Amino acid sequence: MSDEQARLLSKYAEKVVLFFDGDDAGRKAIEKAWLTLEKAGLFVQVCVLADDHDPDSYVRKFGSDDLENLLAEKILDAVIWFASSSVENNKGDTLVLHKLAEKVSTFFAQTKFTAVCESWAAKISEITGVSVANLLPEIAVRDGVPEILDVDEHADNAKSDFFEQDNCYFMHIKKQLVQQSNFVLRPLYQLNGINGTSRVFEAINIDGQKVQIKFDGRELVSLDAFCQKLERHGNFVFIGSQNFLKKLKAALFGSLTACKQIETLGWQPEHKIWAWENGIVHDGKFVEIDKETRTVNVGGNHFYLSETNENQENNAFRCEKSGTTLLDWISKIATVYHENDNGVLLVLYFLSSVFRDTVYENLRFFPILFGFGPKGSGKSRTAWSLSHLFGKPLKQINLSLGTSVGTL
Question: Number of C-alpha atoms within 13 angstroms, CB side, residue 362?
Fold first, then answer.
């Protein structure tokens, strides 16, 4: 079972039952598959056959009805099966119990099924004799050793689940204040877009370094993905458990400002605004983007403009004020391109393109302006003049020289 197969399976199911051979090879395969599936967010259960049967031979000998009864009677949650199997195969081995407790403890710290961890721990304690306290630590150290603060020196903070100090999070665990991170998060925006919801935080680490980080949904559910996203931005290390991550989200999510994420620039019919790379036009007024947060507040709504490609020709889709009025432009175009009334055609084409959506809705097509004539007659310059009305002109494509892909 690969990670990719597990992720694919998680799209179609929430729970998986592993049904392997009962021999040593089968038990090893179950343990490996369980952890891979659990990492993908699936709830895993196990049903083990007797040593002399595999699933195929069992059905052939006893039939499908007996198989269903077996599944109903002998199915176990994977972590309970793991503890039972470990003890059964290594009775009286203290080192095995120690390693079992470590592995189960790590599993509890990382699983998303925290609501049943206490129940699991109680059952495993009965099976193994290991205390619940040793099976259910509230912190899983990922990198290095967390700092422990003196409870007496932080009596006020000790009353809370967790608190901040020196740009670090600390949590109250077993009468100690244990470090959970070397940074703190400041909630900024919840971005609601066509591809789902993401959230933007400002992270400030122990050295005072600040960076804005955008997390997608998976990166705020998976502990590994959360840590990887942080660490890609520098010295931002999270050493807390899955349980602490949930507490942190509960404390921060309510302070996020909801923003509509605009992923395609231009006219936004739902909000009746024009979105540009550098701001938004609303009711005829241009509101410039906050360059640090890439947000704009207009009409009581917050909008987040997705970052454009830095290699795009100097951010061509910008709204910039011009000293030339539309009437001045019409007059000059009609004068410069007076031959054959080409200037008039340009003006009419521009005015119709402003209402392209209405034209298309009624006619189901919109014409393409096609210039023809001998070389040097001004075709390219005419198109260049017209394109200034739609932002900074992009490099034109010669239909006779450009590739079919480039032309499209």
Answer: 4
* Dist. CA 344–CA 336, nearest whole Å: 10
User: Which tens digit of pLDDT belongs to each residue from 205-224?
Assistant: 999 999 999 998 889 988 88
Grade residue 281 by pLDDT with cuts at 50, 70 and 90. very high
Nearest to 277 by CA among 349, 48, 286, 228: 286
Backbone phi, psi, residue 177, to 5°: -105, 105
In tens, the pLDDT along 43-62 reads: 999 887 776 777 778 888 88
The token pair that represents 149 in the structure block: 């603060």
What sign has the CA pseudo-torsion 216, 217, 222, 223?
A: positive
Q: What is the DSSP letter of 272?
A: T
Q: Which DSSP letter does residue 307 get?
A: P
Furthest CA-CA distance within the chain = 101
Three-state SS at 332: helix
Helical axes 242-252 vs 94-110, angle rounded to 10°: 20
Rg (C-alpha) for the chain, rounded Å, is 32
Task: Give the helix/strand (H/E) hosting 249.
Answer: helix 242-252
How distant, in Å, are the alpha carbons of 5, 42, 53, 131, 371 from that of 10? Answer: 9, 6, 29, 33, 55
Report the C-alpha gap between 39 and 223 in whole angstroms: 10
Distance CA 53, CA 200 (A): 53
Please report, for residues 12, 29, 112, 170, the alpha-carbon distance to residue 15 in angstroms, rounded to integers and kept in the order given.
Answer: 9, 18, 13, 34
Q: What's the DSSP call for residue 313?
A: T
Cα-based torsion angle of the residue sequence 149, 151, 153, 159 in order, rounded to the nearest 10 degrees? 120
Cβ count within 10 A of residue 139: 19
Residue 106 burial (CB count, 10 A)? 14
End-to-end CA distance of the chain: 43
- Residue 281: which region, alpha, beta or left (left: phi > 0; alpha: psi -120 to 50)? beta
Q: Give the Cβ contact number of residue 237 at 10 Å.
A: 18
pTM: 0.49
The 8-class DSSP code of residue 153 comes to G
Q: Cβ-count burial of 240 within 10 angstroms (0-12 exposed, 13-18 middle, 19+ buried)?
A: buried
